[in-house]
Amino acid sequence: MERKYVHDFEFIGRVINILRVLKERTDEHTTLSQTEILNIMNEQEYPCSQRTLSDYLKVLMRVLNPEDDDGYVDEKYTIDDYKIIPKGLERKLYYRDHGYIAEGEKKLQLRGLRYNHTFSFAELNKLIEAVLFLKDIDTDEKEKLIRKLQSLSSDNFPKYSPYISETTKKISKDIVGVFEDPKIDEAVAMENLKAIRNAIDNDRQISFNFLGYNENKQLVARKNVSGDDICYTVSPYYIILYNGKYYLICCHESYDNVSFYRVDLMKNITDEIVSRRDSKKMICKCRKPKRDVVGLPKEWNEKTASEFQSEHLYMFYGSPISIRLKIDNERYTLLHDYFGDRYHYVKHIDEKWDEVEVKCVPSAMISWVMQCSDYVEVLSPDELRNSIRDKCKSLIERYS
Q: Over the stretch 327-338, which tens digit does the pLDDT of each residue have?
């Protein structure tokens, strides 16, 4: 008995090939006419007639687009909801959004066709840049990830990317990130993040051991005077990614100020604590209310996290204060690199120096000012100036 097929294999092959041609050859800057698509299909041994191609394109649009190709566009859809975009669709949507109903009802012509990729060229370049900035994966792994990102776009992407050669298609070796072997099991770090998130979601404290490197480049737990591993108990609130590493922002049970712990150096995270009397485990108590923690942001988002990080440079503890600085007026880029636009210009001192104000933890400011001492000087408060002076005297004695 002859087996019947809904469509033959040639039909399926042609439809898949049309979709592949659109994906590989079109994008936000490049379109193809039906004639150009026909020529490509002939080259790839998938010939068909003009009418057949139109029918196939309508099938693809009916399946991949939110609406039929009758010219009607629903107000709930935007250009991002469409995959096969014919010439004029952007204008049609513009007219629809601005109330030109008659123009919006005009039927779309299957001309100037393109595939609407998930990521724009600009978005892909940002993702590749993010991969290059990763410090815990080597060059081969970065190249593998970049190739996968590149495959999400058309063959024309290298023309619009500084990271891939337009002629050779090779990934640039001139733009590279820094590789730092973290010596940490990534799976453990991810488990730590999950445990912390679970505690935050359930409003619980956590306890853990904290690790550090020794002279043999090995990770060992911090110990007390008796030689036992120290068990820390904190109220967890937020997590921030700083300089390629995750940090927990929390409050130690014995204090009321903000503390930081590197997530990848935490071990044995649990919401259970062991009784010192009978070694029984019990659930940690609820977290301290946010309002009771000095210096803790009440809300956590990209803006508050950026401000919090600039006020706590190098992840130093403490309460931020207002600090007046004298800065070389040709070094504002240096100031912007560390504080973003969160500094206030006060006045022009002379041809070389300006006065500005920033907000930062004093201990962090000491380290930063000494690092950038050729271009920056603390003007106030006096207590901070005195601390820096004492630090300098101590260094002079050490290096004498």
A: 999 999 999 999
